[in-house]
Amino acid sequence: MDTTNIMKQSTNRSKALCLCLLLTFLFLPSNFGNICTGSQPHTNPSLVTQLDLSQCNISSLQESDFKLHPNLQTLDLSHNLLKQLDFSVFRFNTFLKHLDISYNNLRNINCSSLQFIKDIKHLIMAYNNFDASYLCQEFGYLTKLEHLGLSSKRIQKNDFENIALQEFKSIFLALEELQGYYPGSLRLLKMEKLHVILPQRVFFLIEYFLLDVFTSTTTLEISQFICKDCSLEVMSLIAKQANVSTLILSNIIMPWRYLNILLEGLWKSSVKHLFINGITIIEDFDYISIDVSEGSIESLYIENVMALVFEFYKHPLLIFSEMIVHNLTLSNAELTFFFCPQFPSIFQSLNFANNGLTDGVFQQCRSLPVLRYLNLHNNRLEKLLSLSSMTSTMNSLQHLDVSFNTLYYDRTVQCEWSESLVFLNLSRNKLTESVFECLPNSVEILDLSRNQIKSISKEIKLLAALKEINLALNQLSNIPDCRHMSKTLRVLNIDNNGIFSPSGELFQSCRNVKSISALNNNFVCNCEMRSFVSSMQAFKGEIVGWPTSYNCELPEEFNGIILKDFHLSEVSCNLYLLIAVVVGSVLVVVLLLVFTCKYFDLPWYLRMIFQWLRSKYRVKQVNVTEIQNSKLFHGFISYSQKDGDWVRNILRPNLEKDDGSVRICLHERDFIPGQTIVENIICCIEKSFKSIFVLSPNFLQSEWCHYELFFAQHSLFGKNSDNLILILLEPIPQYLIPNKYSKLKALMKQRTYMEWPKEKAKQGLFWANLRGAMEIDLPVQEGKSL
Ligand SMILES: *[C@@H]1O[C@H](CO)[C@@H](O)[C@H](O)[C@H]1NC(C)=O
Ligand SMILES: *[C@@H]1O[C@H](CO)[C@@H](O)[C@H](O)[C@H]1NC(C)=O
């Protein structure tokens, strides 16, 4: 590389890129997208398989430029300043398959260096300064070469003889400057397709050249054919002897009259398929009558027509409706109308996409009996009703594409469709749910995407043959009910609707469908979603994008979670279950309570605990020290003699511990002889901190007990009735209590007594409670007697 080179050392690369970028901006502002603009700055060079170095002002190359890219497969060096090329610079690029060195200043090629690109498939060398188009012997060794691009001013005998054995897929010959031709030279080449740019000037033997062009291949493309004043008659004549079956004319500029001459010439040639892609009509545009009845041409494709003139008496396009061809395409041709052929035509396929056709097209047209395919994509159709009546006269119509129009249906009149229609593309129109009342019953593939459908009405039942339906990009709020759809339905697409809370039940109704797509529906992950998710998971067919492309959108907490991984507990979703659980728990608690009451006498425990707490609380409240000082005993026990055994054997031993911490006043033990019984009782009561009454039916019958209770009631209760402890040894029916014991009656009613439990297990608590009620420190007395 010399100093002006861009591709220098790898360390200089960024500088070079900047320079190149600058140059690109300065001189070639319209061509971006190659490495000069820095479009591949971060790629690891050894991984690079494609390099676009076009328009980089490169004037020479060296090995080191490509050494870093051992995996390079495609290299574009077009539009540079190369004068010489030694292919040894690609020594390290053994994978190089595509090389474009067009638009340089190459005069010579180092033929012996061709061995370094011996695997090349695609070599474009057109638009250089080669003196001759002679291809040296070494080209013959490029056995993998499939596509070759050359340009030449002069084609001489044997120029191509070294590649005559090769079979090319395509050869591109840029011959706009051709001035001389040795007849037969082109015929040496074997190729599937020849793409040629015709000479601008007529020269000696040009007819031979044209003849060779039209006879050396079956697929011929002629591009950039500007024919303002050219003699097409010669071409037409020559075309009649052609071998070409597919002729492509791209980017041509000519008057309408010439196009017609060309068509007429080609009509009875070998050409079966004529593609005209990009034609600008100049000077005149009027109907010309040419003979386009039966001919060789089966299909005619005219795309991208620009008419610079509009002056006609009879519509020039009429000629196309008279053509006897199977397939006719007039796309992007500014058509606003087309004619119903005068006689039954053989049109099988008509493609009028991207024009301005309106509802009037082909109305009442009965001369399209074999038309199977009609494409009216991107026109100005509005009424679905008119469209349906248009098809009703087309008895063979199977495939109709009317996508990208502004079709709507207003339900005024019943629609009538061709009965043969199986494919209908209504995508991108203004249809609402009323469309289901106006569809061909025979349709198998129906595209209703990009409309304004909110729901699917039951009329869809009528589409008995339906196999595929596309409802993407509508406003559906739920899954369609497949019970209303044909049993034959295989493909259902409901992408991009508003189905945020789909019904699992409806989804299940679609279980016979083979493939369902429901992407991008802003799913709300709530309880209803669970049944949908489980029916999705149970689905046997294909769900497009499942599971990774189905996420929760709302609520926020679940946003982004894949539907498959979304869980909510059964209880939080099922009201009945929730009720059952609550009722169940309550029932269990109640049963447990009943059980414990029944078998463990819970109320008794509760009462005991309550008593215990109360006595604890009260002990704190009384002026303990004052009372303490005046008392000798912890308790006085009043009982009937008939209960004496219990008191002596059970009550006393349990209260009076051996350590003497609890002292009891018992009349048979502690009563002072000499004093009357009454005095003794009073004394005992007064010296005791608590009075314990052992209540039983016996108690009520004992006269003494009555006294004792009376005293206790009157002497003590008044001051501190809390000092009374009632133990209910045996139940006492209320009626047995005499009225004079009103206090006892009241106490019994309030149940402020401790019941003696017969069960051993409960007695521990009883004692603890009783001791708790008596818990108080009395001054230690030496003598226990009064
Ligand atoms: C003509 O149109 C039919 C129907 O669309 C199609 O099947 C066929 O391939 C077309 N023929 C050619 C040569 O393009
Ligand atoms: C219907 O037409 C649209 C173009 O508007 C196209 O994208 C779509 O694939 C067509 N549908 C079918 C089923 O071919």
Write the layout of secondary structure elements.
Blueprint: H1 13-27, E1 50-52, H2 64-67, E2 74-76, E3 84-85, E4 98-100, E5 108-109, E6 122-124, E7 147-151, E8 154-155, E9 167-174, E10 180-181, E11 190-197, H3 206-215, E12 219-226, H4 232-239, E13 246-255, H5 256-267, E14 273-282, E15 299-307, H6 318-321, E16 327-331, E17 349-351, E18 373-375, H7 384-391, E19 399-401, E20 423-425, E21 445-447, E22 468-470, E23 491-493, H8 504-509, E24 515-517, E25 523-524, H9 527-538, E26 542-543, E27 552-554, H10 570-573, H11 575-600, H12 602-621, H13 624-630, E28 633-638, H14 644-655, E29 664-665, H15 667-670, H16 677-687, E30 688-695, H17 697-701, H18 703-720, E31 724-728, H19 742-750, E32 754-755, H20 760-774
Parallel strand pairs: 1-2, 2-4, 3-5, 4-6, 6-7, 7-9, 8-10, 9-11, 11-12, 12-13, 13-14, 14-15, 15-16, 16-17, 17-18, 18-19, 19-20, 20-21, 21-22, 22-23, 23-24, 24-26, 25-27, 28-29, 28-30, 30-31, 31-32
Helix pairs in contact: 3-4, 4-5, 12-20, 16-18
The protein binds 2-acetamido-2-deoxy-beta-D-glucopyranose (2 copies).
